[in-house]
Amino acid sequence: MLGSRSTLLIADDNPTSRRALVDHFDSLPQFAVIGEARNGEETMELVRALRPDLLILDDVLPMVDGLGVLSSLEVGVKPLVLMLMSCASDNLIQLYYQHGATYCLLRPASPALIADRVALLLNQERPGLHGEYGRPFASVRTVSELLRRTGVPAHLQGYRYLKDAVQYVLSNEGHLCGMTKELYPAVARMHSTEPSRVERSIRHAIEVAWSRADIHELQRLFGSTVNQHRGKPTNSEFVAMLADHLRGAAG
Length: 251
Prior knowledge:
Layout: E1 6-11, H1 15-26, E2 31-37, H2 40-50, E3 54-58, H3 66-72, E4 80-85, H4 90-98, E5 103-106, H5 111-122, H6 140-150, H7 157-171, H8 179-191, H9 195-212, H10 215-222, H11 235-250
Parallel strand pairs: 1-2, 1-3, 3-4, 4-5
């Protein structure tokens, strides 16, 4: 850390994309870019020398690739790692996580989106990524108020996971990403837990909420998407309902 700023190292062999990231992070007061690397060997040297809080790591680097960099860094030296992937492969994603990646993001990804994910990982103030039509996303307080109206008890762990899940979906420009492949792992990393625990806790929170909910209040909130004969929604349906409601309220 440099004062209240989180320190970043950016490793990308493409000078255009690397410069775009550096310029974007330089414009954000909560971050300090302390190094740039053009290949895997340089990345490993700079991580050990500079000890950044977070490494933005391109998976395809000359000399040593991203997986090689992850594998070579010792536990005491390895920072948080946001891996920028050039192709989507479940096996490859799992391999990156097993070797110490904190978060995997598929290219192409804008500097603003990358900065938003970095802020999430470092618990920094979000840099103001906007969804369609430039609307700001709902605040933590707004999400909390909506959860309370749906009857989710605030003392449940699933309540906290739901708050982060809804904000994550909204920060993803309102689109519900894959629950198992992306959303559960992302929330799990925020809380240092397992994706399966996130899934179970959210499911339990919905079950509790539905058992004590006023169905007419839910229908006022969510309209025809709530049907008293159908029963409780799935995790993905519930998160989507909350996100859609908040996006509509912000419009």
